[in-house]
Fold Putative cell migration.
Amino acid sequence: MSVDLQKNRESILKAWKDVLNDKTATNWALFSYEGQSNVLKVVETGEDGISELAAELNSCKIMYAFLRVDNHETGIVKYAFINFQGEGAPTIRKGTCSKHVRDICNLLQGAHITIAATTEDDVEESRIMEKFKILSNDYKIKSNPQIVNDRQEVVGTNYSRIIPTREINPVERDEFWRKEEEEEKTRLQTEYDRQLAENSKFEEERRKREEKEFEKREKGVIAKENTPQLTNRTNEIKLQREKEIKEVIGNRVNTTKAIFMNNTSTTPTSTPTSPINTKSITFEQTQEQTPQVVTSEENLTPSSNEEKNIINELRAEVELEQQQQQQQLQLQQEQEQQQNQEPQYYQEEANGTNVYEDVNPDGNVATDLNEEPILRARALYDYQAADDTEISFDPGDIITHIDKIDEGWWQGLGPDNVYGLFPANYVALI
């Protein structure tokens, strides 16, 4: 709620005017509320200055004071408005009364400073006088001014008094501003022309881009109209060529199978007098197979680049399949040759014929003489595997099937039947 200044307005203004009047002895007036209402009243007035005012303040109430201070050094009279909110006053009351300060200040006008106080110490004379000294208009009046006797120097003949109306030429001034306006107009016109040129360039680029896109779309429509006929013709040619190539591949596979079956059925059971030269057989088979492929290729005369590409791809597939078949055939022939060349022991019969034995006197199957011996080593130190690719062993363990893949690391079969890597300097060959 707002403060009520109308009920006791006359007494409040009378006390305020007594403080402002230098002819009266009253130099302070104290105001407060009537009970818990918002009606402002005059509490007390006094003539003994700040100390007397501080004694009248109540720490449990919210009070206002208007104070006159006479500065004996400067001779200037200063006025202060004090907003006192006691420490013991209710908090809610403080918040409500804080909104009344502006209205009370508008009524009690003339204060040079406003002081917010909560205790009596905030209203000490020294603090209030210190705040008055901060004011910029604090100067001495009663002290005698120092008379400065400055002798005026004689003005020389070259001195001329400055006349502003003569020094400032209105014509030149108007000319200056006219040039400024022309430059501004020129700048604006240049900016407008530049913006217009950029817009025209952008529109031209957009128009060209749209024309190109339209031409591309038109070409695409024409190409789509002509594509079905060309596609049907290409598909027919492609299917025909694939059919012919498949027939050629089928003939080559049947021929290869026949050669393989013939070689298998005619293989002698006895030891051959001379080793079979698989390279010559492969070369002869290649010579026999080549004419048919060439003959087939002669019949496949491409009529376009696309047909050539199809034939080249099919030719590569045929050659790859032939190479795989030849490699399988060569591998089988080598295996049969190794089986026929195993060492056999002879026994002399009465008729001078040789009888072959497939086993040696010890009852063990004969091994290939060209087979490399199995490397074995004995562990000299203890070694624990760092990961799954290594093996662990103790001193004295035997490691077999060793492969020297590196100078520092070998791989072999450990004592726990695990095959992995191990350091070469931890073992000794046996």
Summary: DSSP finds nine helices and twelve strands in the chain. Residues 140-148, 266-303, 342-370 have pLDDT under 50 and may be disordered.
